[in-house]
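Dear H.,

Thanks for agreeing to be a second pair of eyes. The structure we're designing against is below in token form, covering all 180 positions.
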């Protein structure tokens, strides 16, 4: 009887592993049972927020997205295209600007700035064209320029492109794009 349980458990584990291995990115975890060791695979979410959280160059952006209450929105199904300013981009703003924006009383202003960096849809760099206008989540437009292979968004250079997530894509920009 014990042998039948082990064989059944092994077949179930094999079937589950085979089924799960056909899906998106995974992470492995080992689960111990009394009779055997079974490898269980979990599907890992890699949203546009997760991409920023995983980057040491985007801690200020993550703090801002959190303070603006946008984590849940940008972790949703999307898809979203995010133009993500680096820590250096935020540091280049006038002294005290970031600290002021992170205050609870400035939540709406911060959200307006951050949503100016987000476009609905999954827009890869290969889909951008010179002079293209894209509408952001805050309702205003961004202008794409491409000169000598360098892509800029409202004059801000894209320094890394097409970081794909499960709910969109991230393009790293070297400046904070401020709404008009």
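And this is the sequence the design step returned. I haven't edited it by hand at all.
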């Amino acid at each position: 009887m014990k042998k039948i349980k082990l064989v059944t458990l092994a077949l179930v584990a094999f079937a589950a592993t085979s089924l799960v291995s056909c899906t998106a990115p995974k992470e492995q975890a080992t689960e111990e049972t009394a009779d055997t060791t079974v490898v269980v695979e979990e599907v890992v979410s890699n949203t546009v927020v997760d991409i920023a959280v995983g980057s040491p160059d985007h801690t200020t952006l993550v703090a801002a997205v959190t303070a603006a209450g946008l984590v849940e929105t940008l972790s949703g199904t999307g898809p979203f295209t995010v133009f993500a300013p680096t820590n250096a981009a935020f540091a280049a703003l006038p002294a005290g600007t970031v600290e002021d924006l992170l205050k609870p009383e400035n939540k709406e202003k911060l959200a307006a700035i951050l949503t100016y960096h987000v476009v609905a849809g999954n827009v890869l760099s290969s889909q951008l064209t010179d002079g293209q206008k894209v509408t952001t989540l805050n309702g205003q437009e961004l202008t794409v320029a491409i000169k000598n292979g360098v892509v800029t968004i409202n004059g801000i250079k894209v320094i890394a492109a097409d970081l794909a997530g499960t709910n969109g894509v991230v393009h790293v920009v070297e400046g904070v794009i401020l709404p008009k």
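Two observations from my side: The two ends are 74 Å apart (CA to CA). The mean pLDDT is 80.

Warmly,
E.
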